[in-house]
Amino acid sequence: MTQPTQTRSWVASANGHADFPLQNLPLGVFSINGSAPRSGVAIGDMILDLHAALDEFDGDARRAVEATAGGQLNAFFELGRGPRVALRQRLLELLAEGSKLQTREAQVLHRAADCQMHLPAKINDYTDFYVGIEHAQNVGKLFRPDNPLLPNYKYVPIGYHGRASTIRPSGTEVRRPKGQTLPAGQSAPTFGPCARLDYELELGIWIGQGNAMGDAIAIGDAAEHIAGFCLLNDWSARDIQAWEYQPLGPFLSKSFITSVSPWVVTAEALEPFRKAQPPRPEGDPQPLPYLLDKRDQNAGAFDIELEVLLTTASMREQNLPAHRLTLSNTEHMYWTVAQMVAHHSVNGCQLQAGDLFGSGTLSGPQPGQFGSLLEITEGGKKPIELASGEVRKFLEDGDEIILRARCSREGFASIGFGECRGTVVAAR
Amino acid sequence: MTQPTQTRSWVASANGHADFPLQNLPLGVFSINGSAPRSGVAIGDMILDLHAALDEFDGDARRAVEATAGGQLNAFFELGRGPRVALRQRLLELLAEGSKLQTREAQVLHRAADCQMHLPAKINDYTDFYVGIEHAQNVGKLFRPDNPLLPNYKYVPIGYHGRASTIRPSGTEVRRPKGQTLPAGQSAPTFGPCARLDYELELGIWIGQGNAMGDAIAIGDAAEHIAGFCLLNDWSARDIQAWEYQPLGPFLSKSFITSVSPWVVTAEALEPFRKAQPPRPEGDPQPLPYLLDKRDQNAGAFDIELEVLLTTASMREQNLPAHRLTLSNTEHMYWTVAQMVAHHSVNGCQLQAGDLFGSGTLSGPQPGQFGSLLEITEGGKKPIELASGEVRKFLEDGDEIILRARCSREGFASIGFGECRGTVVAAR
């Protein structure tokens, strides 16, 4: 399905909108003034209330809208690609210039600024991958300078189970966690607020149709099981992590909160920004057959620019511009999202509509492209200086982290993901 | 609350029943002939249909029964201790000899053998701990003979997030998973069916009332957040695990299935079988203050005998008795369940009613007490011999593993947990 690149919307703010022009049409769940959460589509600075416009849809598109009822998109995700595409096509008609829907504007549109966004789905299981190879190397170097990548990295799309109950939409405050940490040079831990609080820049992947337990999803079918994408901040307590993570992996260092951008950017909206998986460097092994699919190799990667901004309380008071911490791209993913899906289910593990994957931190190889303070400051050894005169090794109370994403390509309308924000508040 | 030790039930099979005498009264979810799942109480060889007997309850006990509607106990778990105790007290009256409920026997009781058991709750998040110190030492010895326990073990109740979507009730077949494994002496993995399939004997813990994100559950309050207990088999693919688990922990080696016994044995039923946490060996550190509570130290541990049996297809054909693999006890837990709850939430992580914890493998220190084949056969080096003449390093297709638990104490009726069974079937 090609993008109607030239088509303009009767929603004036959509035309040229950085995130939500007519060509994007991400889905989400919103409420107004404490109303029950309901499904909507972002268009410019507005939100289309899908149920208020229900009688404009029929066939598969109507099935799709009906499946978004109840303030959760899980049933819609489960419907898969066909109804999702039908909904998109009808939305493109309804929101294009000349559509009669404009006469019902007051009934079906809300100002996004008046709305509260919610998680788009009930998340049954959350899995965090580690496919950002530059991040894996940068972090590995801090611990093992000569041998940063473990032997399994180029064979296994490494991932681990994350905590689903503390995933929250953009804007939720980030309470500094307390926990055990081992002071340098000591053999016994102390307990207190995390002193090395960090962000991690990740792509989030919403799972669509699930699989029955015992049935693997073949790599060639995996794209059909992906409903959409978001931004994800895998907030990390580095000092807690360092002490707790052996031998079973990160636990309390991650589970205090994970933030996501609330809009589900569909695979269809991202279609123009797909690209071939970059060839593996010479000497790297080819993926095992269950992870190898020609179509996925040719078009399973994405060109999505990713950005992280920081403001401190002092910077906001002084109206100083945000400090850019990271400018990276999804091209640093060593494994595609289809490979993640195929790997995750190859043992028969059941995926369900509304499951969320994180990509792992998507750093680039160069300074300025690192997706966490752990990498930027080399574990706190090289603090960064801010325009306010403040310095940061890790995040302080009052700091706000903003993730953004943007897709641009000659001849196509640019789209974005909306923001994923979180402000650190003091430990209780 | 003391057990009415001498009281007999009008349900004849309950009196002297190995698992479900009147003094146990575990809750579960069952169906008959494909009916909608509903809540019940195990009593002898029968199941009391709670909703069929609804008009026998009032006050808090009735609130409790009403909260078990819909084939999931989550809302009941969320009610906490008060209504759970009220329900138990009323059930003790209703099922005791002399109760008029006996006149309605045909209406309210079903033969358990005619029923199918389901998961008792929707599991939002599943966390697997590692508090069996003998298991941690036995496994650690295989990798690090001189230094089996990592430095954090005696400070941190180690745990990791598990996969919730593939937790299944006893009796669900265990499909042998496929995955990547590294053949001995090779540097590149191969793909195929797991060749080192194992069981792990664990205690399961059902979480009751949850906490708000950001609010830790104090160790002194933790017991109030535990709804009940079950048996849990953390099926493990050792060859997949060895290759995948660095640096983020076990993933596909565990997520193909986790089996639980379907009956929720309440804290009240286990009250007589509580005991003091054994004193820590000399030289071990004391728990940090957030993990230390006098009442928990004095009565937070349990004396529950745990047993694992194996039958092979050939043994069943020949009617040979099951082979006992493990006879262990919950006394080998280095951390109490209250300590697990306090630790899990100390960073503000939200627990929710229906979350499930696994204890980690509960091995004892002696041969015969090891809770996995990895320990029993020393990683496959010392195969076990069965009465059928077969040998086992790890599990073969057709093998069935049966977990059982039993609580006995002089002067009290013995109770059990019911079984947690699973039979291995060939990889697809």
Write the layout of secondary structure elements.
The structure is a homodimer of 428-residue chains.
Chain A (H helix, E strand, L loop, with lengths): L26 E6 L5 E6 L2 E4 L9 H8 L7 H6 L1 H15 L9 H4 E3 L3 E4 L7 E4 L3 H11 L15 E4 L4 E3 L4 E2 L2 E4 L8 E4 L3 E2 L2 E7 L18 E8 L2 E2 H7 L13 E3 L4 E2 H4 L3 E2 L18 H6 L1 E2 L2 E7 L1 H5 L5 E7 L7 H9 L10 E3 L14 H4 L7 E2 L5 E2 L7 E10 L2 E5 L3 E6 L3
Parallel strand pairs in A: 6-22, 8-16, 9-27
Antiparallel strand pairs in A: 1-2, 1-5, 2-3, 3-4, 6-7, 10-11, 12-15, 13-14, 13-22, 14-16, 14-17, 18-19, 20-21, 20-25, 23-24, 25-26, 25-27
Walk me through the structure.
2 copies of one chain form a homodimer. Chain A has 428 residues and is α+β, with helices and mostly antiparallel strands. Chain A is 18% helix and 27% strand. In chain A, strands 6, 7, 8, 13, 14, 16, 17 and 22 form an 8-stranded mixed sheet that branches. In chain A, strands 9, 20, 21, 25, 26 and 27 form a 6-stranded mixed sheet that branches. In chain A, strands 4-3-2-1-5 form a 5-stranded antiparallel sheet. In chain A, strand 1 and strand 2 form a beta hairpin. Chains A and B meet through strand 7, strand 10 and helix 6 of A and strand 7, strand 10 and helix 6 of B.
Radius of gyration of chain A: 21 Å
Largest sheet of chain A: 8 strands, mixed
Uncertain runs of chain A are none
Percent strand of chain A? 25-35%
